[in-house]
Amino acid sequence: MRSPFSAARARRALPTGRRAVAATAVVGLLAVTLVWAVWPDRPGFRTESALLTVRSGPNGDEPVDLDTTLYLPRDAAAGRAAPAVLLAHGFGGTKESVRTDAEELAERGYAVLTWTARGFGRSGGQIHLDSPDHEVRDAQRLLDWLAERPEIRTDAAGDPRVGVVGGSYGGALSLLLAAQDQRVDAIVPMITWNDLSRAFLPESTGGEAAEGVFKSGWAGIFFGGGGNVGSGPAGISGTEAETPEGAPGAGPPSPAPGQGPGTAPGVPAVGALPDPSCGRFAADVCAAYLRIAATGRADQAAVDLLRRSSPAGVLNRIEAPTLLIQGAADTLFPLGEADANARGIAANGTPVRVAWFTGGHDGGSGPQTDSDRVKFLTAQWLDHYVAGTGEAPGETFTFSRIAGFDAMDRGLVATSYRTDDYPGLGGDSRTEVAVAGPAQPVANPPGGNPAAISSVPFAGSLSSLLGGVAGDIPGQHARFESEPLTEAVDIVGAPTVSLRAASSSGEAVLFAKLYVVDPEGAATLPSGLIAPIRLDNLPTSVDAAEPVTVTLPAIVHRVEAGHRLRLVVATSDQAYTTPIEPAVHTVALGDTPVSLPTVDSDPIPTEAVLWRWILVGLIAAIVVGLVVLVAVLRRRHRRQDTSIHPEYADTPLAVRRLRKEYADGFVAVSEVDFEVHPGQVVGLLGPNGAGKTTTLRVLMGLTQPTAGEIYVFGHRLVAGSPVLSRIGALVEGPGFLPHLSGLENLKAYWRATGRPEADAHFEQALEIAGLGSSVHRRVRKYSHGMRQRLAIAQAMLGLPELLVLDEPTDGLDPPQIAEMRRVLQRYATDGRAVLVSSHLLAEVEQTCTHAVVVNKGRIVASGPVEEIVGDSPSVLVEVSDPTAARTVLDGLGGVRVLDDADGQLVVDTNGTARSEVVAELVRAGIAVDRVVPRRRLEDAFLALVGENSRGSGDR
């Protein structure tokens, strides 16, 4: 899908010359065509870069240099003024971080001004965290500068027609600027905060920010000087990877706070540590961080400073229509931040629209469908409220959740939904789910170490890979679990739960997490989001504890029927600062179940969905055509030879003088002749290109032989022959529908064969394959080995008398290979037989009763494996000089030196006495350390086909 920011660039087709055109005209036309082809695409905009000096600060008289670039539509001029967009980057970024977005907006007809915020890159000044007196006043001065440009449309003198777009750090700036300067006509804040003090000191029971739990992981990235945290949806302000030049350390050196020499002037006296070195951070900001980081708690001065840089206190002054875009995969600024901004702005009567997407600071841009949706909403908002074109976007709420993988590019796919009214974090309705478990003691580790792994900056969903086992430390968490859900629940919003806690210390820091557990026990913590809790004045006995309601972070997640909810309450987390004193708390459930918010919404159709239906229609037409063709062929073949060759009536497979030659003269199989009898596991062996796969394809009716016959229980085999129903096969590799479970795939396959369901032996096939309860899981969650075993089960479904497998252990690890060996041996009972092609000679030796060795389209050996191995005349020779020994042995008549994976000498004596071989080596001055017989199938194989033998390429 094309980006809505991209301008349409259609080239007119060049006229083609006619034969009657004169030669000179043809030459001229070719010259024009060549120039047109090599002339570079000219962008629809021009740029101007400058280092602008603006005056800001508390008194408006402090100069600071800002590194800027202005993108102007190519036709923008005094008589063709363009609406403007102020495009702000994320924390740690520069103006280059938003270059792609600026170009797309400029192609759309906007004049776009980007700049590197103070304290970053080439801009001067210090970082004040979007202070109204500094970063916000800097942006006001940029609005003044835009108003003076003749190419910029204005509403009045000094008032440019302008929208402000920004992500994260730039998103908060857009909110604060709109509150401080009424010239702003529309804003699009993305993945940003409402209250910076609550964002870094969250508390999920409604307590004050000063009592919140310090989000030390993210704070360390912000203040440590090396964090690039301005990423959001791809192609949206500040969304590309931030450049190293944009980090705070790009200017003067910026050591970790409190670890360098020097004195920062103006450090507040309240709890300040002496002589911090803060690089490009303002002294008061750095000092507040130092105080919080040292204790894990905030004093009122620090809270006041962070709230000064927060939109929360000025939302009632925002009159610019606001599109709030927030990511669901965001442990830094979760969905609740956008919800608080939406409620505060809407209370003022200002138009507000909310959109959630599947990415965020932890999830990047999300799938392409999400990125396209967000771009469309942004363009629609700016076009109406800034450019004055298009209908009013309305206030429809949209959100999305991950639906699976794209079959084409293997990327994630999101399904988007809409509803007319924004429901907030509470949803339209709620589903109550009871969780159970006794009161449990949990220990707070000394110094907060070891800590659970859940809410990891930039990778909040990491804990979903840990299965809730490695992520939560034994003894440091309590678990409460529900029964399997009887029907699926789509959570859209913030779940709540009631808890009780007690502690001998009188206080506790806890972390509540809501896992989703599938039937196999694998636990997923949606986006790694957790609810930090700080409780004071706790009783010593949990029986005396009052229940508290905990609001968990808002999520968008589908809980499938049969899955369970697991509420975990832990005492530590890597991303947060916890009390250093060891303590033991008791945690119990409160008086209410887990409450899950849901939203009544409709899916948003996309171009991909429309094409998917078209593709489904085409596939359906092809399938119908194939079904008709197969029916006709089957009917025709039923009329053909139905006689039984009496010699092979009880033989599962007899191949007689098989030959396959292609139209270009290539001979893949020249003469193959062998049998497979009941109870046998026969290995079909040969080097690459020997003709193994071609033989199997002919056997399965996938290609026609040039000559020879194949009999299955005496029936002559032809394509579409009814006797094929007595064969189970895996030749071309397994193919399953990923959204169905293993059992559902098997049932769908059996229905496609047209045979009665009563003829399928699901339980027996699955027991032989050894899948257990995994057969009820969706195939997209299967490992490669599980897919292979499911394919074997599919081939076994009717318990066919002959099982044909091509490389069944391909890609399996040693334990899986051993299990596959047992599967095949179990199957070859009760008169059944197995033919297996494999390149793992050691496995064939342990699995197969018989072997057929093919080389260059011909059989060079066949019979019981023991006999073939016994015929191997090779020995292993360990010598002091292998290179010299090889030269000596090559000179002995009839003796061959074979390759060995260990770099040792494997010698085929071919009748020559071992003593003579040893004597010859000793005479040549080569010390012989050991001579041992080699009786392996691999040795026999090499002796039969030659160490360098190759086929001419199988087809």
UniProtKB/TrEMBL annotation:
Biased composition range(s): Low complexity: 236-247
Any one Pfam family match given in the protein's UniProt record, by short name: Peptidase_S15
Superkingdom of source? Bacteria
Question: Gene3D superfamilies from the xrefs?
Answer: alpha/beta hydrolase, Galactose-binding domain-like, P-loop containing nucleotide triphosphate hydrolases
Q: Where is this region: Disordered?
A: 232-269
The UniProt keywords, alphabetically, are: ATP-binding, Hydrolase, Membrane, Nucleotide-binding, Transmembrane, Transmembrane helix, Transport
* Listed GO MF terms: ATP binding
Residue span(s) of domain ABC transporter: 653-881
Q: Which residues cross the membrane?
A: 610-633
Protein family membership = Belongs to the ABC transporter superfamily.
The protein, known as:
ABC transporter ATP-binding protein
Q: What is the lineage of its organism?
A: Bacteria, Bacillati, Actinomycetota, Actinomycetes, Micromonosporales
